[in-house]
Design goal:
Shape: globular
Number of domains: 1
Number of strands: 4
CATH class: Alpha Beta
Strand content: 25-35%
CATH architecture: 2-Layer Sandwich
Number of helices: 2
Largest sheet: 4 strands, antiparallel
Order of helices and strands: EHEEHE
Distance between the termini: 11 Å
Strand order of the largest sheet: 2-3-1-4
Amino acid sequence: MEKSTKYLYIVRVDVEPEKEKEFNDWYNKEHIPALLKVPGVISAYRYTSLEGTPMYTAIYELEKPDIIHSEGWKKAVEMTPRPKDVVTKNAVRNLCERIYPKE
């Protein structure tokens, strides 16, 4: 079995339908590439909801839970501000630690 990461950072948001293209372009072309350069970020994936809300989910695999509080993470977020006319709502952010299997 392939070894998986122990920590996930999950971000879920909704965006106005008329701004979805701009939001997705920004997230895919600017935001995620910048975060993937942060030491300790293993991978990043995005999903769209087939049922329920929020509509969009980003999942980041992390080496350690404190990566999202690091200077590298903060700089990557600051370097890629969301377009001002794109407003998100219903944002949910979770930092998760795998509990099973332990290793």
